[in-house]
Specification:
Blueprint: H1 10-51, H2 55-93
Helix pairs in contact: 1-2
Length: 94
Amino acid sequence: MNNEPIPNTHSTIELYIAQERLRQARYSFNLSLVATTLSFFIGLIGAGLILSNQVPEGTVAAAGGLATSIRCIQLAKDANDRLDKVLEDIKDEN
């Protein structure tokens, strides 16, 4: 068994950074997916409240769902941009 420490070369550090970016992008995407699902259901509840003549509550719920949806789209775009950056970095190395 080799007990010698592995040297942290420039490419090894870049690999760790790329892996961390991928991990963060994965978590951001998963969070965005969950938040989008919740936003969808909040919007449905808002629509149901509006249809049941509880307009103020329905409006608040629908607006909350819409605001959450916009933020989720932004999170997904940020995760995609991080993945694109990792891909560019890998292409630049080769």
